[in-house]
Amino acid sequence: MDYYQIISSNFQATIESIAQSVDTLAEPIGRASELMVSALLEDHKIIACGNGVDAALAQLFACYLTSRFEHERPALPALALTSDGAGITAIAHTGGLNDIYARQLRALGQPGDVLLCISSAGEANNLLRAAQAAHERDMAIVVLSNASDGELGTLLQADDVEIRIDSLRRPRVVELHTMTVHCLCELIEQSLFGSYPPG
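^ that's the sequence the OP posted. Answer follows.
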């Protein structure tokens, strides 16, 4: 097996995906960061959710905000609905998997909060219901979507933001979603606490 060729091909594919996406993604990432910053300045919180690897990205985002991204600063209110295993399994046991996020949002979401909904592979009913529940609670939504998402985008309202990755390969989508999470965290930090000298 030619390990170098496989590794080199993956690195090259990622570089090409990034280069082809930056012009398309810069504007919605900027709008999403402004939406989140505005919510945080008004003492609201950001609630994140996703399935599988997207659940891990939701936790990564919440971790960066409550802890820090690159620099020491005050904690920011964010939580991942994917983190409470007992709560998720209790909801799934009594109401099914489709309500694991919507039910939590109806309990924890407040008007002015922002839902960060991450979807890297097709459509999931629990994410669709989460978006509906967020709107019921007068929350704004930021969606990190993929080329297979159709219905999720149609649920968004004028003030919501969709950051869509059009790659057909899930690894590329996840990589660009991860970069988007990093960009959002950096933009939030800089908007709220100022820029830092390069280090």
